[in-house]
Amino acid sequence: MDVDEIKVAVLRIEGTNCEDETVLAFKNLGVFCEAVHLKQFYSDMIRDDEQRNITDYHCLVFPGGFSAGDYVRAGAIFSARTKSVLQKDIENFIKTGYPVLGICNGFQVLVELGALPGFDEDKPIAEKPEMALGVNESNRFECRPSFLKHENRGKCVFTRKLKKDVVMFPVAHAEGRVIFPMGKEDEFVEKLKENDQIVFRYVNDKGDYAGYPWNPNGSYYNIAGICNVKGNVFGLMPHPERVFWSYQHPDERSDEYGDGKAVFESVIEYLKRF
Amino acid sequence: MKANVFIELKEGVADPEGEATKKALRLLGFKNVKNVSTIKVFRIDIDARNKDEAEEELKAMCEKLLANPVIQKYKIEWLSD
User: Fold this and answer.
1) Does ipTM exceed 0.90?
2) Is A19 in a helix, a strand, or coil?
3) Which domains does chain B have, with CATH numbers?
4) B27 and chain A: CB distance < 8 Å anywhere?
5) Active site residue A187
6) β-strand A223-227 against A198-203: which pairing, if any?
7) pLDDT for A59-109, tens place per residue?
8) Quick one: closest CA in A to B16, which residue?
9) Given the DSSP bridges, would you call strands A166-173 and B39-45 parallel, antiparallel or unpaired?
């Protein structure tokens, strides 16, 4: 697929607020990208020229922000609405190998949807959630830079072009603590490791695994981002779109682009070869 | 028919909201507070032919949206017939 053929949709509902940066990140790399309200996929109240279909796109992004007040649990309502109207479409989308990204609230949506950890390739959306993103251990909204160690060995299609070992993406969330079913935590981590599904883990400024405040939410095994078993669904709490440019980093840098660019670049590279 | 659907964290799952509330209560002088747990209640008014049918539906609601089975459990309590 040529770069100018690639079409990306950044999904939104009421409360989503990181769609603009995410759209701009993709656009800056030369692909078509637009923010699409979930309603545009199913409602008959939408003008003809604004109606959309999942098959119009090659990549879907659940962006950051909030969704529907984050009532019930963060991301739960966005997920329920997506499931009610698009479950089959998204399942086929993932099975075909098209990439899906969830950032922050988007990660919460993918977890509630049952798309992550996504252990079953034939059933990319599980019946029930298999993990949770719980309230931060600090019981605070944690909003600041975070250091992430890239641990993926090549499965995740969103980080294949990432050259650095440790990156800085900022976090901004109240519910980002990775929780696996009680008593099965280590079993889950082993399975994720074996399948090469662990993508980012929180580290300190020296690149070593560390607790709070480096691990901002108390996530199990310092997990910040994981992908599904196929590598084409990726969710993370930190925001790569907020460090697309180097001037968005708190420290001075000589290059034009920031650490986050690699995420968008990688998936475009993947789609080019699709 | 009306029911209260209680969503609470499973035993052993950390409850930072409860912990923070306990800390604040103790600071206010309520030194006898031993533990605080947060529980969410949804009061649901539902049409159904009978209670069993309604209860089945409420359970499905909990499994589909109201509770995340990894960290939460639910309890249904009827308010009226």
Assistant:
1) no
2) helix
3) 2-80 (3.30.1280.10)
4) no
5) no
6) antiparallel
7) 999 999 999 999 999 999 999 999 999 999 999 999 999 999 999 999 999
8) A139
9) unpaired
